[in-house]
Specification:
The protein is built from 3 helices and 5 strands. It is an alpha+beta fold. β3 (85-91) and β4 (97-102) form a beta hairpin. The longest helix has 15 residues, at 29-43. The N and C termini lie far apart (66 Å).
Length: 125
């Protein structure tokens, strides 16, 4: 009979990241604005972008039509601030943006991902 008392439960990368992010303070507004300009430059390259948080079942699609980067930055900023305190905004190797947000009411941290969604929308005319 095997002794399973020494086995440690495994932690997913997401659970580990949530623990690490728990020590983060909300992002400085100047840095946040710079990051939103970077994000918006990616956004205007696409027709559709999705902001996804699987944990919260929060799926938002941005339809970008003739928007310049300032308008896109304003829209994504407002959308993020409506969800809580922004902790981190980092571009990933695959081109998506990982955005950690702390819920203002519960102080729980959530990962959001912003990515091109042009192939996920079927236009019917």
């Amino acid at each position: 009979m095997e002794d399973k008392t020494l086995e440690q439960p495994t932690m997913s990368l997401y659970e580990y990241s949530k623990q690490v992010v728990a020590n983060e303070v909300p992002m400085d507004p100047i840095l946040f604005n710079k990051k939103m300009i970077e994000v918006s430059m990616d956004m205007v390259e696409h027709t559709y972008m999705m902001l996804l948080c699987h944990d919260r079942r929060d799926y938002t699609i941005f339809h970008i039509t003739n928007a310049d980067k300032e308008i896109a930055a304003k829209e994504i900023s407002e959308t993020l601030y409506n969800r809580g305190k922004i902790l981190l905004v980092d571009k990933q190797k695959d081109g998506s943006w990982e955005i950690w947000i702390r819920d203002s009411l519960t102080d729980e941290n959530f990962a959001y991902y912003l990515f091109p969604y042009d192939d996920g929308v079927v236009e019917v005319e």
